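Contributing new records

If you add data, match the layout below exactly. Sequence lines come first and carry their own label; structure lines follow with theirs. Keep one chain per record. Anything else will be rejected by the validation script.
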Amino acid sequence: MPADPTPSEALQVLLQEAWEHQLREFPVFATNAGDHRYDDRLESMKPADIERRAAQDRTFLDRLRRIDPANLQGQDRISFEVFERVIADALGEHEHRAFLIPITNREGFHLNFARLPDELRFETALDYRNYIARLRACRTCFGEYGALLRTGRREGRTLPRITLEGIEESISPHSSGDPQKSIFFKPFLSFPPSIDGAARKAIAGDGERAIAESVAPAFRDFLDFMTREYLPGCRETLGASALPNGRAFYEHRVRLFTSLDASPEQIHEIGLGEVARIRREMEEVVAKLGFKGTFAEFLEHLRTDPRFYAVSPEALLRETAFICKRMDGELPRLFKRLPRMPYGLRPVPDYIAPKTTSAYYNQPAGDGSRAGIYYVNTYNLRARPLYAIEALSLHEAVPGHHLQIALQQEIEGLPPFRRFVESTAFVEGWALYAEKLGLEVGFYTDPYSSFGRLTYEMWRACRLVVDTGIHALGWTRERAIEYLASNTALSRHECTTEVDRYIAWPGQALGYKMGELKVTELRRRAESKLGAAFDLREFHDVVLRNGPVPLGTLEREVEAWMASVQRG
């Protein structure tokens, strides 16, 4: 008889089965991860399929918990902990029926679909045919998501109405017009040499018809549904606490996005303490500048003085690119290992720019066919101060998101899910910590840029106060906007869009500061414990080498590293 599998063998079999399940169920994720077996498909969002996936997750979790983690070592132990949290979090989302609110004011299936032309590879005729198959599946997929939203409205599970004002601006550009002028036609404007003229014409014709017959009607139907049916039925309340079983849902979201067992009230108090500390540092910078006036007047000065703002989108992008290249040259001072994958810089697309944040990052394709992209918002230039570009770029590009995520994708010898797993507290906490690393390699020498870094840190501290205030303590939208505006130099436009983001996405904003506080705490502990033996590059390697992990797992790994250094 064959021997029973060891705990390590049982774990590896389970992780591989779960990975294959994820690839099959979410074809666009599979494509982005570098697996092209399902390139002609979109996910099914029928209720029966959603329930089937949840049942499978319960089976995976049950099998996992039959393995005693005490019998696992090294990476197996970490994989166990990461996978357990991923599956438990997914089941928590399902229990609270979060799938009935599959959009926010800045995220959703309609925006993800609009990114396909820029995120897919187009190297062969099959790539184009697969893309066309996805275009043809668009209307069915959108219909399934619309049915979920309709069910959510009946159950009282909707987004707050105020956060969806203007959402039609991100839908209507794709709902009508000449298919050849659609963003979805972009791949058919150029072909690789391997596809001849006759094939090009046929492929482009099929693509044009798919846009006209499926994509445009899908967006048109969705626009009509949102404006005529969903928005009028959305709730007027703000906080997640107003949803069915809302307090429990928000407490789940706090754990989901921070990976910590802390109550909303505890996080609120942590936020108030951080706001007070950072405010003192900001006031010191104002005093050094010799500004004659109140703190509020200084913020207004920053918001209104033209010298702090780019005169054109091109000027903003040039300044951003210069800062990124400066930091590229400093990275070896901070890190032992650097990613092979490069990153690029692009403006945020027009159809989403008015409702989204100052910048964001899209990770590389798992098969190496697409670099990471740092997107900079060039809409409303008077809301994009130049003094904040250093902190913003260090967060979104390097040593923040691009460095961490590209390194994660290049880790060898781990279960594949670990190369693509997400953890808000780790990923965003690292990026916020990375902003401060500029102090160690010659950034923030200008006092205004120094204030810009502090206002960005203050922004994330305010999130702890505002998010918990809205979703657990009954804050109004106006109170939240005013709190952000009075403590940061963010423009009024940004304060408003940010607060609407927190309202629409309960808990997500908590991960940044809570994650950064943990990384900073671990570094200080290591510096104190190791003294002259502390090596910053080695510390960063320990933090990043396992990819995103729960903060408790990260703490254990850093403690183990400190002990090994002390042992010599």
